[in-house]
Amino acid sequence: MDKHNKLLSYNEECMEYQLEEETAQLANLKEELESKMAQIDILQLEIEVIKADHYTKENKQQQVEEERKSRQEALAKDRERLIVELNGAKEALKQRDLMNEYWYSELKEKEEQNTQTKSTLEETNKQLEEVKELNTQLKDESIKVKEDMNLQKATCMSLESVLAESAITKREVLESVTYVLENELQCSICNELFICAVILNCSHTFCKSCIDQWKKSKRDCPNCRSFITSETRVLVLDNFIEKVMPNLPDDLVKSRAKVVQERKAPLYRKS
Questions:
Q1: In the listed set 130, 149, 179, which residue is the last one of a domain according to the structure?
Q2: In Å, what is the CA distance from 126 to each residue of 123, 157, 233?
Q3: Which residues, by range, are in coiled-coil regions (predicted)?
Q4: Which of 36, 83, 112, 181 is surrounded by the most beta carbons within 10 Å?
Q5: Which burial class, exposed, middle or buried, applies to 4 when counting CB atoms under 10 A from its CB (0-12, 13-18, 19+)?
Q6: Does residue 114 share a domain with residue 16?
Q7: Could you give the CA distance from residue 34 to residue 71 in angstroms, rounded to a whole number?
């Protein structure tokens, strides 16, 4: 852009210099034309004097008349030449004005392009900043989801440990597990045990098919109304439910199998 501006400035200086030269030439031509016109006036005065004296100088008058005609013809030719040169100079000035207009329009167009480019760069930088902020937010949410998954994994491991090491009876274990399943591991949308559990960025967990159906009409969490930006499968919950299902009452197992079959998910079979 600087090189282009310098080129335009140089061209303008050259054109101004040529314009000054041509103006000076026009002034010289004008002075020359005025001088020639003065000469014509002088010749006319001489002709008048010769006419007054023609009765004594008839032969000389003829010579003077021929010289006058010759001078008039020469002056006429000079006048025509000066007029042609003057018209040429005017045409050259007109061309210079057209060139100045062209370069001015080019310069204005370049300035508009630079302004548009600057605006585009500012918009791009703004979008990059927004992307950076979104990446930071997603990283924070990912860390939070991982922490929640670890917490749920620890809860499941704790439950498995209770099942393996506790000395309570099978009935008490089943009652305890059933309570946990019905109160902690149920989807708040369908009120069934999780099927293909997914955890959202807000740490709430739902069945994948339930949250997919929910997102067709809304994009916020059914529980806390936070905007949904990510969802992650929670395999540890699916594995835990699959392991404890064979030890639960038959009616609960059958109900579970029916729901899974309706959603075309893998069946949990009682061993």
A1: 130
A2: 5, 46, 33
A3: 12-148
A4: 181
A5: exposed
A6: yes
A7: 16
List the 205-207 sheet strands across, edge first: 205-207, 197-200, 231-233
State whether the Cα torsion 183-270-213-144 is positive or negative: positive
For residues 119 and 15, membership in a common domain is answered with yes
Whether the predicted model's global pTM rises above the 0.70 cut: no
186 in the same domain as 76: no
Q: Are 58 and 122 in the same domain?
A: yes
Coil vs helix vs strand at 143: helix
Give the separation between CA 100 and CA 15, rounded to whole angstroms: 8
Measured in whole angstroms, the distance separating CA 199 from the mean position of its chain's CA atoms is 37
Domain hosting 224: range is 166-262
Contact assessment for residue 211 and residue 199, using Cβ atoms and an 8 Å cutoff: no
Q: Is residue 10 part of a domain?
A: yes
pLDDT along the chain (271 residues), means of 10: 68 78 82 83 80 67 78 84 85 82 80 80 80 75 74 69 57 64 81 90 92 91 92 89 81 84 57 37
